[in-house]
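During the reporting period the student researcher (J.K.) took over the structure-prediction task from the postdoctoral fellow and processed the backlog of single-chain submissions. One of the processed entries is reproduced below for the supervisory committee.
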Amino acid sequence: TGGSNIQFAINPKDGDMVVIEMNPRVSRSSALASKATGFPIAKIAAKLAVGYTLDELPNDITRETPASFEPTIDYVVTKIPRWDFGKFPGAKDILGTQMKSVGEAMSIGRTFKESLQKGISSLEIGRFGFGADGKDKIRPSEVEDPQERELLRQEIVQKISRPNSERLFYLRYAFELGMSVKEIFDYTGIDPWFLENLREILDCEQNLVAAFKS
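J.K. obtained the following structure tokens:
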């Protein structure tokens, strides 16, 4: 007996699921799951190892059900990695299978949008969410010249097509430039559900700005 975690990937085009990693031990992912659900995986695993069964162990959160009951949550937990390529001049800002993050932030919210906004502001990178903080590198809505917009589009497409530390914010610029969820999905492979939520955050911001100006 003991703790283990399985990581898998889902192909957004056809829903095909592939197992990419399995750790037969308590790991950082186990710690994340424990924090997110309130279920003490390491503690339960230790007691199972000395002979207890799940039915004999109480749930520390509910104090009524045994540990054999699967934890249910009514909130969304988001984990966001933190990168600092400025400290590593020789490292390329291209993300792949090799770990390049220097930390991470975990956030909790009632919705994915709320959880994401909290996570971004917790990274300590000077950003306070998915925009609306006056710290955008570029402002596509202010570019009117057709040639400049085309050059900007090429830059944005290049940034979102390959995973990098700035990709999340360039998704925002892509929406600001007028690109659709379908277009961005074709370039990134990011599930449309996440893209729709990001667009809703931007739509809310734009509605608030319009209301303020009026």
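The committee noted the following: The first strand starts at residue 5 and ends at 10.
J.K. will present the remaining backlog at the next meeting.
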